[in-house]
């Protein structure tokens, strides 16, 4: 079971500690993601997977804010795919010292991505290496074509990896290109969150602005999504992250 007791903020002790934690996370992600991409599933585009891995590492270098340690595990929205400045992706709107462990195309299910072992559960151990007072898991859009069994299996694995941490799962928004599949994925994730006693935040009601691909957010969309998630995480957890 996920521990849902609300721990008080644990501020980082100086820039040196923050830099050390960030460097450790980047080192772990670099090594781990290199293995993942090398072991990618058949049919994946090597250059695409390598770009995603490099973007993941670069985003992990950007630690924003101060206060309680918040780790965001997510997909391309967390990484900031399509943004001129990926560091401005939606997690930067959250309160606290924010570290992002994202990978474009990944999701709850093992095969949401064809770039290897990059599901949320696979990446959780490296993401938590520097410690966390709050873990925010954002995703579901890449699970749109996965079976209920695959999503459930990945969710259960994730819960086990995050055991003992304060966790909030943020469900998928209604990106136009996948809007038809969002209600089912959202309902399944909400049901699983209830079953495993994990706080869940719905975002399918948000009116957001998207890039031409109708899947990824504009800069304004990231700001709106991040602000809404920050408010809703505070509401379900009973207090802000920092």
TrEMBL record:
SGNH hydrolase-type esterase domain span: 72-224
One Pfam family linked to the record: Lipase_GDSL_2
InterPro entries per record: SGNH_hydro (IPR013830), SGNH_hydro_sf (IPR036514)
Protein name as catalogued: SGNH hydrolase-type esterase domain-containing protein
């Amino acid at each position: 079971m996920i521990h849902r007791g609300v721990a008080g903020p644990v501020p980082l002790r100086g820039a040196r500690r923050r830099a050390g934690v960030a460097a450790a996370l980047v080192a772990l992600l670099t090594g781990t993601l290199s293995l993942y991409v090398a072991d990618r599933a058949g049919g994946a585009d090597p250059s695409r997977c390598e770009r995603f891995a490099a973007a993941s590492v670069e985003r992990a270098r950007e630690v924003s804010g101060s206060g309680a340690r918040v780790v965001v595990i997510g997909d391309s929205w967390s990484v900031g795919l399509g943004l001129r400045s990926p560091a401005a992706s939606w997690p930067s709107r959250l309160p606290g010292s924010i570290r992002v462990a994202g990978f474009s195309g990944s999701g709850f299910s093992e095969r949401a991505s064809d770039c290897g072992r990059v599901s949320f559960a696979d990446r959780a151990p490296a993401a938590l290496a520097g410690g966390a007072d709050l873990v925010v898991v954002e995703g579901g859009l890449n699970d749109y074509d996965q079976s209920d069994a695959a999503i459930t299996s990945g969710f259960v694995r994730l819960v086990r990896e995050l055991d003992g941490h304060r966790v909030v799962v943020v469900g998928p928004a209604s990106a136009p290109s996948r809007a038809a599949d969002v209600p089912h994925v959202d309902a399944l994730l909400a049901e699983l969150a209830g079953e495993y006693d994990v706080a869940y935040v719905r975002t399918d009601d948000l009116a957001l602005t998207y890039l031409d691909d109708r899947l990824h957010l504009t800069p304004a969309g990231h700001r709106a999504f991040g602000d809404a998630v920050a408010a809703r995480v505070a509401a379900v957890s009973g207090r802000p992250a920092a």
